[in-house]
Specification:
Order of helices and strands: HHHHHHHHHHHHHHH
Shape: globular
Number of helices: 15
Mean pLDDT: 81
Radius of gyration: 19 Å
Helix content: over 70%
Distance between the termini: 43 Å
Largest sheet: none
Number of strands: 0
Oligomer: single chain
Structural class: mainly alpha
Amino acid sequence: MILGIGFTFIIAVVGFILAGLPGLNHIGPLACAILLAVVYRQVFGYPERLRTGIQFSSKKLLRLAIILYGLKLNMVVIFHQGLPLLLRGTGTIIFSIVVMMILAKWLKADLNLSLLLGVGTGICGAAAIGAVSPIIKAKEDDTAMGVGIIALVGTVFSIIYTVLIPLISMSPIDYGNWVGISLHEIGHVALAAAPAGQDALAHALLAKLTRVFLLIPVCFILLLWMKKKGKIEREAKFEFPWFLIGFILMSFVGSYIIGQEILQSKKVMSDIAAVTSFLLTMSMTGLGLNISLKELRTKAIRPFIATIITSFLLSFLTYMLV
C-alpha cells in the first residue's frame, strides 16, 4: 500500500516538474503525470506488487480531491444552472449510448463491450463501466478492456482540449461547461479544465457531476431492462457514488460558511487548492497505468474506433451547443 502510494507520489512530483518546462506548461501537471504512467506501463508493464497502493491513489485520492474541489463552487450558480445542465447531461448520455451501439453494429464490434463504452463515454468513464458491468453480466475481460479504452480515449481528448484553449474563443465558464458535458472521466474533465482557470474547472466539475448523478437512473433502467429479458437476478446492485455527497456538502461550506461564518485567508484557500491539485495528479497515475496499448491492438480495435468516433461527434456537437 505505502509503496504504491509512494509510486504515484513520485510520478506526480515529476509531472509537476515537467509541467514547468517550455511547451509542456500548456498541458499542465495532470497530463504530464498520466502520460508518464502510460509510457511506464508500455515499457515496464503494470507494477503488480504496487497495485493496492496505486488503486488507492486512483480511486480514494481522486474522490477526496473531487470533494475538496467542492469548495470552489458557488451554490447560487448551481441552483441557477442546475436544470439546463441536467438536460444537457441527459442528452449526452442518450447520444453516446445510441451512437455507440449504431457504430458497433456497423463495425461488427462486440455489443456488450460497446454498451459499456457507450455508458462510460456518456456518464463517468470507468466508474460507470464498473457500475453497469454486473448489471449487464459483462465479462471481466470486457470490463477491464472498457476501462482501458475509456482511459486512453479520454486522455487523448483531454490533451487535445488543452491545446485548443488558446485557439478557440470561449469564456472560461463556457469552456468549463463544454468540458464537463463532453469528456469521459472526472479526472479527464479536471485535466482539461484546470489549465483554463478555477472558474472553468468549477463549472466543468459541476457539469460533469450532473452526469454522474444520472448514473443512478441509468443503472435502474438497465436493471429493469435486464430483468424484463430474464437475464439478471434480484440481488444485482451498483455502488452509489458517495463522494458526490461530499462534493455537494463542501460546495455548501465554501458558498455559505467560509468567508461568512468562518473567515479564512486567501493563502489558506490557495494552499488547499494546491493540495487538491496534487492529489488529483497522483490519481492520474493510476488512470494511465490502466492503459495497455498491446491489448488494445489485439482485442478491441473495433470498439476502440467506435469510441473515438462517438467521442469526436459528442465533442463537436456539444461545442456547437454551448
